[in-house]
Every structure is written in structure tokens, then in C-alpha cells.
């Protein structure tokens, strides 16, 4: 990975978010206020080049996966410009019986 100094490991503790993770998560919380869960992980070793995003929200109900992903891309329009990649996983909360 190009962001890491020689000899550095990509493993880090997940107790606290990186600045980039926190920024992306905050934007998603604002854009998806009904989200039951939002998880943002910097998978580029902490340099902010690539993120994996998981969002579970009622706002995705009755939308195709491609439409759900378009909603996330639109929400992160400005941030995506500085990224090399983005993995998006979206879902609708399971209904409890």
C-alpha cells in the first residue's frame, strides 16, 4: 500500500476512528438520519485513500442496490474526489416479528 511507510503494518486498533473515518461517518449520519447502523473503516492503512462503508437504513427500503449505492455516492460527493476507492455495503434493517 502506497500510504504506509516501509515496515508499517496495516493492522491498527479499532477503538477510535481516524479523522477521515469520523468525517465520513458524520456526513453519512447527517444524510441518512434513519440509519440503524453506520460503519466506516479506512482500509488504506489510515491514510484515507480507501474506505469500506456499511449502512443499514430504512431509507434504502424498496430501492435496488444500485440506487442505494448511488445515494451513498451522492452523499459523499465531495469526499469521494480525494479517495482512490470505496467499498459500499447497504441494507434495510430486518423487521422484527
Automatic annotation (TrEMBL):
InterPro entries: BolA, BolA-like_sf, Mt_Fe-S_assembly_factor. It comes from the Eukaryota. It holds the Pfam family BolA. Belongs to the BolA/IbaG family. PANTHER family: BOLA-LIKE PROTEIN 3. This is BolA-like protein 3 isoform X2. The lineage of its organism: Eukaryota, Metazoa, Chordata, Craniata, Vertebrata.
Amino acid at each position: 500500500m502506497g500510504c504506509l511507510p516501509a515496515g508499517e503494518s496495516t493492522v491498527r486498533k479499532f477503538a477510535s476512528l481516524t479523522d477521515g473515518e469520523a468525517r465520513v461517518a458524520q456526513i453519512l449520519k447527517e444524510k441518512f438520519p434513519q440509519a440503524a447502523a453506520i460503519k466506516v473503516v479506512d482500509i488504506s492503512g489510515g491514510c484515507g485513500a480507501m474506505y469500506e462503508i456499511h449502512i443499514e437504513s430504512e431509507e434504502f427500503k424498496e430501492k435496488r442496490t444500485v440506487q442505494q449505492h448511488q445515494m451513498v455516492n451522492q452523499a459523499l460527493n465531495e469526499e469521494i474526489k480525494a479517495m482512490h476507492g470505496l467499498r459500499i455495503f447497504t441494507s434495510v434493517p430486518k423487521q422484527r416479528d
